[in-house]
Every structure is written in structure tokens, then in C-alpha cells.
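Contributing new records

If you add data, match the layout below exactly. Sequence lines come first and carry their own label; structure lines follow with theirs. Keep one chain per record. Anything else will be rejected by the validation script.
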Amino acid sequence: MRYFNTEGVCKPEEHYIVRLEDRMAYIKNTLVDRKKYFVINRGRQYGKTTTLAALEDYLKDDYIVLSLDFQQMGTEDFADAPTFAHAFANVLIETLEINGLSDQEELMEPLTEIVSRDGNSLKDLFMRLSRMCKNSTRPIVLMIDEVDSASNNQVFVDFLAQLRGYYLKRDKMPIFHSVILAGVYSIKNLKLKLRPESEHQYNSPWNIAADFKINMSFSAEQIAAMLGEYEADNQTGMDIHTVAEEIYAYTSGYPVLVSTICKYIDEDLSGQEKFESSQKAWTRDGVAEAVKNMLKKSTPLFESMVRQLDLYEELRIMLENIIYQGMKIPFSPDEKAVSMGLMFGFLTERNGQVAIANRIFEMYLLNLFMTEEAGKSEVYLKGDSDRIGFIKNGRLDMDLVLKKFVEYFHEISSEKEEYFIEKYGRKFFLLYLKPIINGTGNYYIEAQTRDARRTDVIVDYLGEQFIVELKIWHGSEYNERGEKQLLEYLEYYNKDKGYMLSFNFNQKKEIGVKEIQAGGKTIVEAVV
């Protein structure tokens, strides 16, 4: 039986995966057949290695494909040019043997010459690679995965420069038909780890690379097709398109996140309380439970995220401003923090603005930032001390949460300036709320509605959802418009009751909590 895989290469005969045939045909026709050199540059666990494996198989009838992984080569193999040349030739020989091509002398002989000699330069290596490509009976495609593992080595940058030189003169000096590199760091940023001086940071030794424009995230339709194959094997009775849309809503199609949700529902969720059958597990509630479980665990993807935020302070600041303040940041892929966020897969472009790539990342980052502040935050401690009174018969009393927060916030903010409240008000509410639902519930910020004036928070506590709009007061007309937007949102979520927390700077404001009836819905409005 096939299963959902989250470790290593995904294979269609062993795993439930999104089919890649259309993607392979596009890469072959528009890039490889046209002799392009290009980079598959995506975030961690974005399907790069799976794509290379599928592409190698897809190309094998028309090309000789030499596919290697720089993790096969140790740090010592990049010590200097002679050491690298020897190690690189050895890896290519091993690749030819694995592919059953070791009997082809025109391929093996130039490589064995390098291995048998000491003191080879990169020039010596490329002279023999050129002879190998010239004498080959079929065009040779070179694939290198995990180029990041070599990105802090000058010898690799020099290797790229040699590739560039041969590419530009390949009519006279034969070389690889196409070269494909895969990794997280873009080639443009390889020198970030080598020389910190600003004038060197963006000098690329490989500016011949063609754009790789393929969207490697999964669409809701592709997720549905994968679930359709699973359903044909397992007969759960799920509503395939509803589940696929919900998975996409959380992941925006980030491959490993999609697979992780499906794997948890398939292997762990069915049979648990409230999910006694597979049909109950493969639902929107099941997806939400899988996400909650995912956020409780340390994974390689999340660990990588924390590591990059520690390295790039400007990226962390940008993410905090987006999450807490709804800051609108114009999208420019060449701005350093934006460029880094795009490269790692944390950020995306949405309507001309910088946005966090998916809801799960946003939930994880919000939880990370909240946890970092919890130990030093009096607001968090206050929420923690109040939490017992908010849970009644296993249900969250959101009315009381707002009432107590209004009282507390009025107490701590009475002498604060408007700027302080506008910047930190929503952050304080999220800090106050976190210990109340921690471990039992979840919340996330609805990215589609967030801006500098308004933020919608969706709270999920034991399957019950609460829609809370946090907004900055900008006059009664704006307030009425906010009420209308909240009503529309309640209609979308099929809820009869919603909540509005207004941070009001009007001197004549009426602080407190009241109920409003509008459009057949109940709105609990709290004003601070």
C-alpha cells in the first residue's frame, strides 16, 4: 500500500504524490531541450530532490543524465582545486556505474585520467569534461542537488565560473548540454558566506542561468487529485474537494506541509476521540487537528526557519511588523530582507505587497514570537492568571475574555501615547489570549483581511470557532464599515456571533463591552 511520505524522495509507485508529468514536460521542452543552465531555488523540503529524481527518469531516453548530490562530497573535498577535481571525477564515475554506463569508454576514460593523476587544476578537469561531452553518443545533462552544502567554499564558486566560461564558448569547446543546480540559496547569493564586503555580496559567477519560472507549490486541484488516488484505495467517504481546499487554505500548497497533514490524518488521527472513523478524520476538523499537532512539534523545516531568523535580523523585524501591525510593505524582490524571505520560502507576493507564504508559517511564527515574549510579558502572565475563569464546561467564554482584557488594558494604557497603543495594542491582546487557549486551542491571523487598521483573528477552541476583529478607531464611518466587513466574514464562516475589539483614541469614547444586533447577527463590541 502506498503512503504519504515526508522524508526524502517521493516515488509515485510507493507514495501518494501530486503527479509531475506536466511539470517534467515543461522543463524538458522549455529548458533542457533549449540547452539552458538553470537553478531550482526553493525553500527547504519544497520538492526539489523529488523533482530532480522525476526529471532524471523523464530525460533518460534522450540524454545521458549525470545526477549527483554535493552531500556525497565531504567538506574536505572542497579544500582546494586538485582535491575537488579528484572528488568530482570520482562521483561522476560512480554515477556512470550506477546508471550502467561504465562500459562506455568515451565517458569513463577522461574521468579516470583525472582520478589517476595528482595536482589537477580546474582547467585540467574541464578539459577532460569537454572531451567527454564531445565524444558522447548522446547529449549530457548534469544535475547537482544540495549546492548549498558547497556554497561557503571558494572552489565551488570557481567551478561555477569555469562552467560559465565553457557555456559561453560551447560552440568551440563542447560541454554539458544543460546544467541544473538545486538548493535553497540562489546562485546570486552564494558569495554572502564568502566575503562580507557589500561590493562582493551580489556578484554572481553564473549569470548565465535561465529563469526557472515553474510554480512548485501544489494547487487545490492537484491536492484533490492526490486525495482521489488515496480515496480509491481506502474508501473513507471523504468529501475530496472540501478537504483539499482546507489543506490548501492552511498550506498554500507548500509540498511538505501538504504531505505532513495528510500523513497525520491517515496514520495517527483516525481512531482518536472525536475522530473515531476515517470519514470523521478526513474533514475540515481533522485538518485543523493535524495542523495543531504539527505546530506542537519541532521539525527540520521549522528548525531551519528559526535558524534563518537568528541569522537575518532584518527579516525577523519585517515578519514581526507584518504579523503584529499588519504593516503593508511594497513588494520588491531585490530588497535584502524580502529577497531572503523569498529564497527561504517564508515570504510571497500578494497584490503587490509582501506577505507570509502560508497560514501554517504565520501560525508558527506568531507562536514563536509569543513564546519568546511570554517570560518577560506582564500581559501574558495576566492572561495566564485569569485563564481558569474563562473555561466553563469545556467551552471558551470569549465574551468574558474581552471584558477582562478591556479592564486590564485600560489600567495599563491610561497614560500611554496613541503611538504606543496603535503599535502594541493588538500584540497585547494576542499575548493575553495565548495562555488562555494554549495547548487546547489555536488561533491565527486571517491574512486576507489584515491591514494597518484591521486584523481578524480566528480562534479555534475544541472545535468551536470565534471570529475576533481587532481594529484601530478611525471615526464612526470607519467603524460602521468594519461592522459590515465583520458581518460578511461571519456569513462566510456560517457564524451567528462575532467579536470586535476597538482601540479608540477619541477622548469621549465609552470604554466597555456591549452587544449589537446587525444583519441578523450578534456582534460583541469591546472598546478600549
